[in-house]
Specification:
The complex is a heterodimer. Chain A is of the alpha+beta class. Chain A contains two helices and three strands. In chain B, strands 9-10-11-13-12 form a five-stranded mixed beta sheet, with no helix packed on it. Classes of the chains: A alpha+beta, B alpha/beta.
Chain lengths: 102, 336
């Protein structure tokens, strides 16, 4: 299986509060197995690299695009739901590792 | 940015996300739960979208609704937990790093403010994240870099600094790493003294410090510029010689200064300036609520620096002239 990549924004100062909300809702509704453990906003992917493409090319492309931006402001503000699959089936995933200190 | 990323990565990769083919229509979201049974997802969504008055107290769900939800949910653990507020959070946020995940691991992060890639051990170094957050504070104006120009005659207002209170960093999404209460205190005290000169008048609307481990209020008071009128907050001790409320007349407007707006007399027909709610309910208690004539001067809403009455008057005048009665959620720029 090829490596699977994802480009995302990690929540910063709201992370604790959003995570607490997710855990509370998941516990209340009994859906803890399906809850998101590391809240984030996906920008691209999941994806795999075409043959012959290195991860350094991805780094170069993202760095080039990100360089003019200073921060990415947004507001979290409502409940939404979407039906159906937005993502093709991928291998099952284990809990993701977070950097310490956040 | 999403369009640019899709344009750059699509030719060299295979995306498994259908939205990547239509980056302009991309659904940006923070997932609560996924891969849910559709019937269960509908039941949860219906409960969350109920208006507060349909869920008495906004903290509990009516027995009838609960019964219906319970019947639709497979698990029987529903009644062992209390439903958190169904009102969605309204919080401003800023992406500071773009993260590239590889499988379950963080492969690299691009720090937007520091203009550098972070890889290897630095990804797991709390000091690295601390530097990023500090840079963000200065960029956003949450940490003033220098004293403001003096404005003699202005009267300053702020509330709910919660000095010494580590948990407030989490509870109110303050721009500090958790437990870095020393740094939080340093920035809040510096912002105060960069805004207020020793000759200025200040109305402080309650909850100066909080917590068993926090220094005493008088110790903080000694470090603050200005002639300060303290208005009682629910977490303040009695040694501060605080008053329950105060009134202020300025520019043909009457202001009631009080910690908790719920304690304001309904008969008061001026503007109520208050704290207490922090940034926890910006829908009801935004920075300026023109409809209810309320102004929330909690530290988080102001951007962690006191606001002058002259600035408030200017905002009120501008909106009254334009007829715009939309609330202003925060004193600082935000994207709604």
């Amino acid at each position: 299986m090829d490596d699977i990549y994802l480009v995302e924004i990690r929540l910063a100062r709201t992370r604790w509060k959003i995570k607490e909300t997710i855990v509370s809702l998941a516990n209340f509704f009994g859906v803890s197995d399906s809850m998101e453990r590391h809240p984030h906003v996906t920008l691209f992917g999941p994806f795999s690299l075409n043959d012959g493409i290195s991860t350094e090319e991805v780094i170069d492309q993202i760095g080039r695009i990100a360089a003019p931006h200073v921060i990415l402001p947004f507001t979290i503000g409502d409940w939404e739901t979407r039906e159906g699959l937005n993502v093709e089936l991928l291998p099952s995933q284990s809990p993701r590792q977070m950097p310490s200190g956040r | 940015m999403t369009r640019a990323i899709a344009g750059a990565l699509s030719p060299i990769s295979q995306s498994y996300n259908h939205w990547d083919n239509q980056p302009d229509k991309k659904w940006f979201h923070v997932t609560v739960a996924n891969w849910l049974d559709p019937e269960k997802a509908s039941a949860i969504y219906a409960a969350l979208k109920k208006k507060p008055h349909e869920n008495p107290g906004d903290s509990d769900i009516s027995p009838n609704v609960l019964t219906r939800i319970s019947a639709m949910l497979r698990r029987s653990t529903v009644s062992t937990h209390s439903l958190p507020s169904t009102r969605p959070l309204l919080l401003d946020e800023a992406g500071l790093r773009i993260t590239i995940m590889c499988g379950q691991e963080i492969f690299a992060e691009y720090d937007l403010l520091r203009k550098t890639w972070i890889r290897g051990d630095e990804l797991h170094d709390p000091a690295s994240w601390q530097r990023t957050v500090a840079t963000y504070r200065r960029h956003a104006g949450f940490e003033l870099a220098q004293p403001a120009l003096p404005n003699p005659g202005d009267i300053y207002l702020i509330s709910d600094l919660h000095l010494g209170h580590a948990n407030i960093i989490h509870y109110c999404s303050r721009p500090f790493i958790f437990s870095d209460v020393v740094e939080m205190d340093r920035v809040l005290l510096q912002n105060w003294n960069y805004t207020i000169t020793p000759h200025d008048k200040v109305n402080y609307l309650g909850d100066l410090r909080y917590g068993r481990d926090a220094p005493a209020a008088v110790q903080y008071r000694e470090q603050l510029n200005g002639s300060i009128t303290f208005i009682e907050g629910n977490h303040d001790d009695k040694k501060m010689d605080a008053v329950p409320s105060a009134t202020l007349e300025y520019g043909n407007n009457n202001f009631l200064l009080i910690h908790d707006p719920a304690d304001a007399l309904p008969s008061f027909d001026g503007w109520v300036i208050h704290g207490h709610h922090h940034n926890n309910d910006l829908r009801c208690f935004p920075f300026v609520n023109f409809k209810e004539r309320r102004i929330n001067v909690s530290a988080e809403v102001l951007g962690y620096s006191p606001v002058g009455i002259q600035e408030l008057m200017r905002i009120i005048r501008e909106h009254e002239c334009s007829g715009n009665r939309e609330p202003i959620l925060l004193r600082y720029p935000y994207i709604r």
